[in-house]
Design brief:
155 residues; mainly beta
């Protein structure tokens, strides 16, 4: 089943929303409001930078990270702004909202390193980044597979 619906510009998917936040210039008190589409539903994420905290990482290190308070609102009535952000005009009638916290490293890499949220049925959930790599150059060209080598040999 598919249907058409108006979507705001600069809409993010679920994963890119966290990286979108990590690309912002984060300062205490600064906030953002942006659309996220799950493929079926539209959400608006309101994010506010709180403070820099010490965060334990999966590799047993302490990193300085910005704590962001997030509020996720399902299917609100929204109004687009010119800067790619949106304003919530009215919340959905079912009142569904989810509060989360995201920590983004305060160094130049600005990596999302931890996320916490609460489910009513199972309790608190914490997601922690275990590892990451930094790409330092252009991607290497892929080597042709067996079929590609045969085509190249015929030329």
């Amino acid at each position: 089943v598919s249907y058409k619906r108006p979507l705001p510009t600069h809409v993010q998917d679920l994963l890119s929303a966290f990286f979108f936040l990590s690309t912002r210039k984060i300062e205490a008190g600064k906030s953002w409001s942006f659309p996220v589409h799950s493929g079926a539903k539209l959400y608006v994420v309101r994010a506010k930078a709180v403070s820099v905290e010490d965060v334990w990482t999966a590799d047993r290190q302490i990193r300085k990270a910005w704590k962001l308070d997030l509020e996720v609102i399902r299917e609100p009535v929204w109004r687009a702004r010119g800067d790619g952000q949106v304003d919530v005009v009215a919340e959905n009638k079912d009142g569904w909202k989810q509060k989360m916290n995201l920590w983004v490293s305060s160094d130049a890499a600005s990596i999302p390193i931890k996320l916490t949220y609460s489910f009513k049925l199972i309790g608190n959930v914490t997601v922690t980044l275990r590892s990451h790599t930094v790409n330092t150059g252009p991607p290497k060209p892929a080597k042709p597979g067996k079929a590609g080598k045969k085509r190249m040999a015929k030329k």
